[in-house]
Amino acid sequence: MKKLFLLPLCLLALVACNNGKKAEERAQHERDSLMQVIDEKETELNDIMGSINEIQEGFRQINEAEGRITVANGNPEAASSRDVIRENMQFIQQTMQQNRDKIAQLKQRLKTTTVNVERLTKTIENLQQQLDEQNRRVQELEAQLAERDVQIAQQGEQISQLSEDVSGLRADNEQQQQTIQAQDQDLHSAWFVFGTKAELKEQKILQKGDVLKNGDFNKDYFTKIDIRIDKEIKLYSKSAEILTNHPSGTYELVRDAKKQYTLKITDPEKFWSTSKYLVIQVK
Fold first, then answer.
1. What is the mean pLDDT of residues 247-269?
2. Which architecture characterizes domain 32-159 according to CATH?
3. Which of 4, 63, 170, 281 has CA 20 to 30 A from 147's CA?
4. Is the pLDDT of residue 16 over 70?
5. Measured at the alpha carbon of residue 269, what is the angle toward residues 264 and 275, in degrees to the nearest 5?
6. Residue 105: how many CB atoms within 10 A of its CB?
7. How far is CA 137 from the centre of its chain?
8. Domain map (residue ranges) of the chain
9. Taking all residues of the chain, what is their mean pLDDT, rounded to a whole number?
10. Closest to 213 in 3D by CA, of 283, 263, 269, 279
């Protein structure tokens, strides 16, 4: 009878022990599940915060690039400034596109996440506002740069036109100077010749006792001089006679040690006032 009484007690103890183990296993499983959920939420939160930080860093870099463009835009003529503006505008466009993509990804995650949805929604809205504001500033900056490029192009055309005008004026001035010099040279030019009677006749300078009667004489036989400079003409002859008409008192024939004549013009302006051609007959 005692054995029969103990057997049910043992069975009850065994059942109670098994039930305790199962309860403990269930509790451990619930703890593991909870920790997994916490870990997943923490990982998701870290991912979200990482994306937000990257977006904020993109905004900061864009602001710095805008500052560099503003500084470079103050010296638009420099080639280095144009390179800075171009490179930073490309950087801004790329970074803004990256921020757009990241904000779009956050909005998509908002549909499935359980991490403080209300706060995350406000954060994303704030990021979108910053992106819109930055996009507006960039558009204004692009408009300013485009207007500047138009002004530079217009200034370049004006400068080119001015350069052409200056070149034209310089060419005209050079031509005028050449004309003035030529006129001045002609104004102060004269021609002389000396030769024997036979030589003068041969060149038709002397015809029937008249000097330079007709215009068909050989002009190439004359020597051209500048009356302001050439005031003495060596005749290499002991006999000399001036055949053309020149005012007396404006010249003199002087003999040298060899008794050869030299014509010295003492008053060039008056001497050449009657004729720019001088003909001297020598023997």
1. 95
2. Up-down Bundle (1.20)
3. 63
4. no
5. 85
6. 13
7. 27
8. 32-159, 186-282
9. 82
10. 279
